[in-house]
Amino acid sequence: MDWSKTQLAEIRYFCTSTRSQTPRILIGLPLKSQLGLILIIFSYYHVTEFQISDIKAFYQLLHTPHLRPDQLRPPSPARIAKALEQLDKDHRHQINVHCLGEERYQIVWVSPIYVDDYVKELDHGYERGYVQYFLEEHTWNDI
User: What's the Cα-to-Cα distance from 78 to each of 41, 75, 126, rounded to whole Å?
Assistant: First the structure.
């Protein structure tokens, strides 16, 4: 996937910033919940189809040069596939995802409530200048 620099700044702010209202939200969540959150982010940016390699690449986007003990590491493709299968069967997450074939998936539906939560966090980040910080930081570093 090709992310714009603005999208990357928003994603990094939401997922990694200690300044967000949900700081480092992915850390500590079970893989199925992490993937649900990633799919919410994908949905917000109008990504409807993805591959397991896109999920792995997403985890790499969140990587920081100085490895911290709590840093996210990309799970194996088999673990991603299994978690996506569980997510599809568990409708409590209010996310519908279907397998289209080998390592290809489609986001069928995401509850607007979850997308609204992401938007509210981004609004907070823009109001405080946090997203702009991530945008300026990555203007100097090619991603």
Answer: 22, 8, 37
